Amino acid sequence: MEIEDGISSGDAPNSISIESNKVPTKEPHHCRFGDCLNPKIGYGDFCREHKAIGKIIAGKIAREKADSVDHSMSMYEEALRIQKSPSGQVFVQEIMKIIILIAGIFLAVYILVIIPIQGFFEMFEDFFRYG
Questions:
Q1: Is the distance from CB of 77 to CB of 67 less than 8 angstroms?
Q2: Which has more confidence, 12 or 35?
Q3: Does 55 lie in the same domain as 97?
Q4: Hey, which residues does 30 pair with through a beta bridge?
Q5: Are residues 58 and 90 in the same domain?
Q6: Structural domain boundaries enclosing 63
Q7: Choosing a second label site near 60 at 20 to 30 A (CA), which of 3, 81, 94, 105?
Q8: Is residue 30 within 8 Å of residue 41, measured between CB atoms?
Q9: Which band of pLDDT confidence, cut at 50, 70 and 90, is reported for residue 1?
């Protein structure tokens, strides 16, 4: 496809044409904001006016973010709320608690049930042996 004098030849519609020499360009020392032609300040990309507007907007966003914090809880409680995501260490601790609980139940059953039954049978064994 070849472009000649803003009119393309081929299957494209002839009603759309852009002349490349009429595209507005800004000088590199002008503000980047829209069509502002004020000079930039220092090494920034914006003029004094648009830089001030940017700072005001950034301040409003920071205030809104600070206002969204729940003031009823302390900083310690809020830090705990943020860190409540479960980790692998918590999982291991819970498994260890379950194992210790099961071992405790078996120990209690052995002490309270098995040992007395063994003693009872040993008493009868001595009785029948020595008569």
A1: no
A2: 35
A3: no
A4: 39
A5: no
A6: 24-85
A7: 81
A8: no
A9: very low
| Cβ-contact 17, 10 below 8 angstroms | no
DSSP secondary structure code for residue 6 in this structure = T
- The two structure tokens encoding residue 33: 């904001």
The verdict on 73 and 113 lying in the same domain is no
Q: Residue 69: what are its φ and ψ, rounded to 5°?
A: -75, 140
Q: What is the pLDDT of residues 72-121, one digit of tens each?
A: 666 777 777 666 655 667 778 889 999 999 999 999 999 999 888 888 88
- The secondary structure of 19-76 as a DSSP string is -GGGS----TTB-SSTT--SBP-TTSSS-HHHHHHHHHHHHHHHHHHHHTS-TTS-HH
Structure tokens at 104: 């405790």
Residue type, 65: K
pLDDT exceeds 50 at position 67: yes
Residue written as token pair 């590199």: 28
CA distances from 91 to 22, 86, 101 (A): 67, 8, 16
Whether residue 97 is found in the same domain as residue 61: no
Dihedrals phi, psi of 58, to nearest 5 degrees: -65, -40
- Per the confidence metrics, is the pTM higher than 0.85? no
